[in-house]
Amino acid sequence: MVTLSFNHIQGKNGSHWNRLMREEKAKEYCIVAIDAAKFVNTAMVCTIYSDILQGPFEFDG
């Protein structure tokens, strides 16, 4: 499942992201952090508990 967290509306009581992280399945989620740069793109994969599953790596865009 891929969920974008950019649709949060300020002032709303809670957010979709907050509800996702409180579910029992939250330990199964992976977070992919992407740094899209001009010359070198990098990414890493981790859990919501900050356990790194795949350290920083470069990729072509």
How big a fraction of the residues is strand?
Answer: 25-35%
Major β-sheet annotation: 3 strands, antiparallel
Spatial extent as radius of gyration: 14 Å
User: How helical, in percent, are the residues?
Assistant: 10-25%
Structure, described:
The chain is built from one helix and three strands. The protein is mainly beta. The chain has one domain. The chain is elongated. The longest helix has 7 residues, at 16-22. A three-stranded antiparallel sheet has the order 1-2-3, with no helix packed on it. 0% of the residues are buried. The protein starts with 15 loop residues before the first helix and ends with a strand.
Give me some keywords for this one.
61 residues
Briefly say what this structure is.
It is built from one helix and three strands, in the order αβββ. With 61 residues, it is mainly beta. The model has no long low-confidence stretch (mean pLDDT 81).
SSE arrangement:
Layout: H1 16-22, E1 31-35, E2 41-46, E3 52-59
Antiparallel strand pairs: 1-2, 2-3
